[in-house]
Amino acid sequence: MTPEIDDRPVKLSCRNLWKIFGPDPRGILTAMNGAAGDRMVLKQRLHQSGHLAATIDVNFDIRLGEIFVIMGLSGSGKSTLVRCLSRLIEPTMGEILLGGEDLLTVSKARLIELRRRAMGMVFQNFGLLPHLTVCDNVAFPLRIQGMSETERLSRAKDMIDLVGLNGKEAAFPHQLSGGQQQRVGIARSLAVGPELWFLDEPFSALDPLIRRQMQDEFLRLQRMLQKTIIFITHDIAEAFRLADRIAIMRDGEVIQLGRPADIALKPANDYVADFTEEISLTRVISVADVMTPAGNDVAGLSVKPVSARLMLEELVPQLAAGVSAFPVVDENDRLLGQVAAADIVDILERDRRRRHRA
Amino acid sequence: MIASDLTLSPTASRPWKSGLWVSLLALALVAACLMLRSRLPWLSLYPPAWVVPIAAWVNHVSDWVSALLQPICRSFAWMLGGPMAWLRGFLVWLPWPAVALAATLIAYKAQGWRLAAFAVAVVAYLLLTGYWPATMNTMALVILAVPISVIAGFGLGVLAFALPRARAVIEAALDLMQTVPAFAYLIPLLILFGFGPVVGLIASIVFAVPPMVRNTLLGLSQVPPVIKEAGLMSGCTVWQGFWHAEVPTAKPQLLMGVNQTTMAAFSMVIIASLAGGSADIGWEVLSAVRQADFGRSLLSGLVIALVAVLIDRITLGFAKSGEAPASQDSRLSGRRLLAILAAIMLGGLLLRLMAGNADWLAGSVQIINMKALDDAILGLVRDHASLIDSIRNGIISFLMLPVRIGLEKAVTPFTWGLTLTPAGIAFYVLLVAGIALFAAWKWNRQAGLTAIWLGIFLYFGLTTFPWPALMLAAGLLVWRIADARMALAALAALAFALLSGLWLQTMMSIYLCALAVLLCLLFGGAIGLWAAHSDRVSALVRPFNDALQTMPQFVFLIPALMFFKVGELTALIAVMLYAIVPPIRYVEHGLRHVPPHVVEAAVQSGCTPSQLLWLVKLPLALPTIMLGVNQTIMAALSMLAISALVGTRDLGQQVYIALGKADAGLGLTAGLMIALIAMVSDRAIRIWCLKRQAPALRAG
Ligand SMILES: Nc1ncnc2c1ncn2[C@@H]1O[C@H](COP(=O)(O)OP(=O)(O)OP(=O)(O)O)[C@@H](O)[C@H]1O
Ligand SMILES: [Mg+2]
To answer: Could you count the other beta carbons within 10 Å of the beta carbon of residue A320?
Structure first.
């Protein structure tokens, strides 16, 4: 969304990451000579030898403070990928750099240290400890670190307030609704104040209304906390709603990676195009995406300037009033450029055509 | 469900086609064996010269091992001896009101008022029958055995969970420990640990460890992976993750393990007293049994049953409260309960110290006794001696003898009042052939062949059957029920019986067991059928079943003994009294839980009640019923060792003899043989159930 994301420092990067399940993953990978060559042939050979490639040669850089969404259908390898990133399972090959440190070569003790300070994770089916109260669940990571009781309880209380569960501190997980349980999971993962936040389909187990509410809550939290986030989902609408950038996975491969608007406007192939069909373009394309940079004529526009972050959708009512172009400004009211009404109408027209096909 | 049954029949008939020739071939071979047996005597009697001295070898090894381990074991026993003697003394010395109050409070904490009331009733019973001191002695054993078993079982369970290689070994050992009769491993324990109450304690510990291991393993492997991952992502070390995330999550299952371990330890008290207990409740039952005192054995057996139920409910209550921690009585928190218990104990101590040796505090007055019952039964037996005798002789000569030694030898003027003439034999052959033909016409060829096999066995007798023919038939049977691998296992087990020289005893065991199981299935199945269709019968039968299952097995010997004296029939009846519960329960449960929509569909298509039963309900309930059959066999086998006390000639008797002579080799081989029978029949029936269920599952 924000154009300046590419300028931020890289927080987590992943290079040529492979995860193969089966009797001898490493052996088969070296036998195939680092897996160069045709992917189809490769999958065939893996399959014949009783292996399954769940993550195939994945590369990306996640930047500080970004919401990076990994999207794909069930079984496409999202959970496997995120578990590799947090090293809950050992990748077969590749590099994972967290602030320049290769996670795959760090010692056990260092890994525990990193998990205690730098990472938090939310699980699809919550993973709450059934024998602990809400408060003790949230305080669990702190207790593991040996924090004193009063200190950790007060910190847990803050987290519980943050996710809006005050009053439920003494309840046990089985006494809570799904949405409430996931709030506990979120509070727990935030308790240690991690820089890196993994969420593996956190809202998939919730019904649509609650899911929507939790998404808003999540965006609110992120505006406050500015974490670096890896968010897994199989719900395309959720992905486009939350993401700064999206990686679309299919059968273990990342088939497209980009900002929501890029993916919606230029799908890499039919598979992605099918996926994004039901996404309304005016909702994912921002003013910044279709803006032309500032020229001399912009100053002459008499219309009230609009923010570069605004989605095109919001401009539609004003189009009806016969505006021909909008000046565009950034947060500090600096003039950036202009956006022509014809361009917006163009995108509206594309949306209409897509809807007709569907 | 019905559709799946239709798809099942073609697959079910296919193995039969290839099996027909095998069956006929086997019949021919068996016939050859039977013809040749007078010419080749080794066919009917396995020559003693061919016996391999397995028992002697075992003794050799055990001598060597025990020389090595004895010092360690003896010092371990000595270490346990002190606390045990002290605890026994202390519990008996404590005034009963204090102990009773404490027990009631614990019961209240576990399950509320009703259990507390039950605890009061149990205490009253113990006091009135005068078994209070004996019960306290037993409690000392249980209180010591349970924590040791729980810790050892937990450790082994964790080991099995963490190391897959250890797991296979530990699971095999568990199977063996639970099928070898406790009698049998009492012998090596006696050798290693010496004689005395401590050996009873150790036997209880050994017997009580397996359930804890199993539940630990189960609980830990059922912890959802996400819990482990959540622990790891919270920064747990392996150790922290185990103790703070996995173990607490597995806690309900672990508590179930504690419950079962406690019950197992308690169920061993009688056998423990065989190893030199004294003045405890197991010893009371045992001495009552030895004196054939029905009244006393009933009274003391009831003590065991009542206390077992109480302990069961208390530990279950605590196990359940672990699942939903918020639903306890908030007025009685764990800490407060402990404080109150401490206060009660202190009060009891003071009372005892001040009151000196007041007799009423020891609670050993016997107010209820059952002399009248004994006299009544003995009177009954005396008055109707001839009737009872004729019943006894009738059953023995018309049922037990033919099965054991065959009509060929059982039909004598002395037993049947007639001799077996060639005409009689011809009549028998015709009868069997007729039945076989009828069965083949009415059902299928398999039924016909089964009738022929039964006819042959009934004529020649199970224990006098030529051993190669019997092995062939047994292998074929197991192959039919299960698969080729199990058939090989059965053959191996029988070969072990031959080689160890226990063939005759093994056949006696199988004969007694098979007869008991068949009769149990017949009577128990009928009762279960009735109970499934009548709520009143069901409600009537249930308390009897509960009582039969919680009563110590020894108690069943006595009524049978009083009526029918020492002998096989008494053993048979005792085994049946214990083994009749599973068929009743499983038949009723299986029939009652046929899916209602299937029943509705059948009624809708015009089934008569009997068609409904035979064509719909029984086939659908069959897997459950077969589990019941399995349980019946296990119950009968476990009772076999105990029925040796009333004079049988089977493997149980061998174990019992070995116990008397401290002959570890004989005891272990005979015990192992019982375990082998149990394991083969258990696995075979399980495989059968799986085969039977698999197509239904696939279709559903
Ligand atoms: N431990 C394992 N052993 C073998 N195969 C596995 C293992 N874990 C996952 N897989 C396989 O890897 C593939 C990717 O699984 P993964 O759980 O990563 O999918 P996912 O995208 O998270 O799906 P979902 O949306 O259902 O959670 C699947 O085909 C799965 O069967
Ligand atoms: Mg997943």
So the answer is: 7
Look at B229 and A145 and tell me if their CB atoms are within 8 Å.
Answer: no
* A80 CA: nearest ligand 1 atom: 18
Cβ-Cβ contacts under 8 Å, B229 against chain A: 83, 88, 121, 123, 127
pTM of this structure = 0.78
**Among A107, A192, A186, which Cα is nearest to A143's?**
A192
Q: Is A203 on the interface with B (CB under 8 A)?
A: no
Closest C-alpha to A66, from A214, A197, A188: A197
| Beta carbon of A228 within 6 Å of any ligand 1 atom | no
Report pLDDT digits (tens) over B220-232: 998 999 999 999 9
- Say which residues have a Cβ less than 8 Å from residue B583's Cβ, sequence separation at least 6: B520, B521, B523, B524, B525, B527, B528, B625, B628, B629, B632
Nearest to B227 among A121, A129, A175 (CB): A129
- The answer, yes or no, to whether residue B700 has pLDDT greater than 50, is no
What is the block-wise mean pLDDT of chain A (358 residues), using blocks of 10 residues?
Answer: 69 92 86 68 83 91 94 92 92 91 91 90 89 92 91 93 90 90 93 92 87 90 92 92 93 92 88 85 84 70 80 83 83 84 86 76
Say if residue B507 is in the same domain as residue B553: yes
Q: What CATH number has the domain bearing residue B236? A: 1.10.3720.10
Q: Is A51 in the pocket of ligand 1 (CB under 6 A)?
A: no
Q: Which ligand has the nearest atom to the CA of A233?
A: 1
The full set of domains in chain A, from first to last, is 3-10+61-118+194-279 (3.40.50.300), 283-357 (3.10.580.10)
ipTM over 0.90: no
Which has the closest alpha carbon to A180: A203, A201, A150, A196?
A203
